[in-house]
Amino acid sequence: MARLKLGVLVDCLRLGARAGIEKAAQMGFDGVQVYVTAGELAPENLPRSARRELRKFLADRHLALSALCVELGGYADPAALDERIVRTHRMIDLGVDLGVSIHTTHIGKVPEDPNAPARRTIAEALHAIGAYAAERACCLAAETGPEDTALMHDFLASIGSDGVKVNFDPANLVMNGFDPVRGVYELADFIVHTHAKDGLRRPDKTAAEVPLGEGQVPWDRYLAALRETGYDGFLTIERECGDDPVADILKAKRFLETL
Predict the structure, then answer these.
(1) How far apart are CA 32 and CA 213, in angstroms?
(2) Residues 209, 216: contact at Cβ < 8 Å?
(3) What residue spans define the domains of the chain?
(4) pTM assigned to the model
């Protein structure tokens, strides 16, 4: 069975953008994801010439861009909504110039009540961003975690946009008390990108991220579910804590290569 492509979230290497991309190539990854909400890779800091140069920099190192991270803190706040929609549009434009179609983010926790103001506000944002993305053959990929995957499925289905998909993070689900394997089957039609991360949830309901393979994500069953449902995209390693991120990420890569 063909292996899934392995990527890394460059910012987790803590080396800066270009040094991190260089390190990812040296580590043998197939691709990288980068944050573009601020800093040297933000749209306002990358004129067209710099965008062309970045594409060449990646191509010369035989690295694909798996996705851009366009995290803005969610879309549940009406006071910030217009600004965040516009900023997301600019980051989608950046993705078009960089040749990547997937833009991942946390959309905000979706309330169960369909009439909840926060749910309506998030839906308003996704309708606007989804339409903009779809017109450009792109998508906004909502990251899993704070809500049950059945709820996420029904909410995204209600948006009804080809420009709104899912970035599946199994650790976020585990840490919130949900089953990531069931989640794959429930969200299969939406999954376009995944984060490879591990975590655990204690009996007292506290949770923690841990190195890949040391938590409660059932990797064999999880990857089998992804393959069974037809996913053939990236497993992008994300390590948000730890004193030696390069060592942790290399260990995670080697772990995934055994599966």
Answers:
(1) 21
(2) no
(3) 5-257
(4) 0.96
Angle at alpha carbon of residue 256, lines to 192 and 199, rounded to 5° = 80
Q: Which two tokens stand for residue 177?
A: 């008390």
* H or E element that contains 192: strand 191-196
Which CATH topology does 5-257 take? TIM Barrel (3.20.20)
Do residues 88 and 129 make contact, with C-beta atoms less than 8 angstroms apart? yes
Structure tokens at 256: 């995934």
Residue 117, CA distances (Å) to 123, 124, 154 in order: 10, 11, 17
Question: Angle at Cα 236 formed by Cα 208 and Cα 139, nearest 5°?
Answer: 110
Q: 23-82 pLDDT, tens per residue?
A: 999 999 999 999 999 999 999 999 999 999 999 999 999 999 999 999 999 999 999 999
